[in-house]
């Protein structure tokens, strides 16, 4: 059957500090540079969630976009928007909040929560130039 990839775009703003407990302060500064700034810094993140599936024979939809929007907002966006990822977000605790780790955590939170279709891809834009893709 025809598989279709449906993507919805989201946006959130958050602060973080890139700092690994496994490295010394000097190593952290060398590895992360400005992103190791002790009090953190912010990003305007863009997020694309892609669902793969067959269009329903009756509705013609892979998943109801309103439903997808509500789930992503509830599971992800409200928890991170205008938050400090190192301090305010329980599911980011113990992780260096790089775009890579954020994408993996987002995937794990969304997986199994979609009523139709299957989660295909998380695409996270930390900046317009720095983009991470995770497909499980
Ligand atoms: Zn940053």
Description of the molecule:
This protein is α+β, with helices and mostly antiparallel strands. The protein is built from three helices and five strands, in the order E-H-E-H-E-H-E-E. Strands 3-1-2-4-5 form a five-stranded mixed β-sheet. The longest helix has 16 residues, at 65-80. The two termini are 23 Å apart. The mean pLDDT is 96. The chain binds zinc ion (ZN). Zinc ion (ZN) is lined by residues 16, 35, 41, 43.
Q: How is this structure best summarized?
A:
It contains three helices and five strands.
Feature tags:
elongated; 136 residues; five-stranded mixed β-sheet; alpha+beta; binds zinc ion
List the helices and strands and how they pair.
Layout: E1 4-16, H1 25-32, E2 41-53, H2 65-80, E3 83-84, H3 99-110, E4 118-125, E5 131-134
Parallel strand pairs: 1-3
Antiparallel strand pairs: 1-2, 2-4, 4-5
Residues 16, 35, 41, 43 line the site of zinc ion (ZN).
Assign a percent range to the helix content: 25-40%
Number of helices: 3
Percentage of residues in strands = 25-35%
Mean pLDDT: 96
